[in-house]
Amino acid sequence: MAVKTLTIDGKTISAEESATILQAAEEAGVIIPTLCHLDGIYDVGACRLCLVEIVGYTKLMSACTTRVREGMEVTTNSERLRNYRRMTLELLFAERNHICAVCVANGHCELQALAYEQGMDHVRYDYCYPKWEVDASHRLFGMDHNRCILCTRCVRACWHIEGAGTKNVSGRGNQSRIICDLNDNWGVSKTCTSCGKCVMACPTGALFHQGSTAAEMQRDRSKLEFIVNAREKKQWSV
Questions:
Q1: 88-118 pLDDT, tens per residue?
Q2: pTM recorded for the entire structure
Q3: Do residue 216 and residue 105 come from a single domain?
Q4: Is residue 185 part of a domain?
Q5: N or C: which end of the chain has fewer CB within 10 A?
Q6: Has residue 174 been placed in a domain?
Q7: What is the band of 1 on the pLDDT scale with cuts at 50, 70, 90?
Q8: Which one, of 118, 144, 140, 116, lies nearest residue 131 by Cα?
Q9: Number of domains in the chain
Q10: Structure confidence at residue 236 (pLDDT)
Q11: Which domain holds residue 106?
Q12: What is the pLDDT of residue 108?
C-alpha cells in the first residue's frame, strides 16, 4: 500500500494512504481529543472535537474522517481549536443533564475527562434541563437519555460488531435520541441479543449495567477492538 508523507504540528510523519489524520496522529504520538471515535468501529465525525486545521482549507476538518494526503500540513492544537473544543464541550454539558456526582460513570467518563483536559471550568451557556426518561426495562442494562451525547458509538457497535441492528437514532436536533427497534422499550426488543457491546462502547453514563451505583461503570473497550481485528484477520473459523 502506498505511503503518504505529511506534517502534523510541525512534525513530518509517514502514513498509509488509507489512514485518517486521527490514525496518523496517534501513530506519531500526537493526541487529538475525540468522543465519537472508538477503535474497531467506523468513524462518522459526530462529536466534532477532533477538528483540525489544514493548510489550504478554509474550514476545520474532522481528523477521524479525513484521509491523509501527500504534503498535507495539519495543526491539531492551535488557540482557535482549543477555544472551539471548549465551546463544544460546554454545549454538550448544557444540552442534557450531566450531573456528575450522581452518575454511574463519575470518574470513568470520557466527557468528564475531556472537560478537565480542555480546561473547561464553567459553562457559559444556559442549561436546557430537558426532561428525558430512563429506560430500565431491560433485565441487564439501562439507558439514561439525560447522559447521552449522541456520539452513536452504541449504534455502530450494535450494527457493525454485534450485527443485531437494535439501536438507532430518532428525531432531529436537540430532540434526537437513541431508540431500540421501532422506538420500543429496550426490555421488549425482539432483536437485542443482550450482548452488552453497546454498554461497553458508551463514553458516558448513558448506558449502564442495572444496579450500578455512582462511579462503578468501568469499561474494557479493548474487547470490541479485539473482536473486529480478529474478524478482519480471519482468526476465527466458521
A1: 999 999 999 999 999 999 999 999 999 999 9
A2: 0.92
A3: yes
A4: yes
A5: C
A6: yes
A7: low
A8: 144
A9: 2
A10: 66
A11: 98-231
A12: 94
Do 50 and 74 form a contact (C-beta atoms < 8 A)?
A: no
In a domain, 93, yes or no: no
CB-based contact 102:214 (threshold 8 Å): yes
> What average pLDDT does the structure give for the chain?
94
User: Does 215 lie in the same domain as 104?
Assistant: yes
pLDDT of residue 220 exceeding 90: no
83: in domain: no
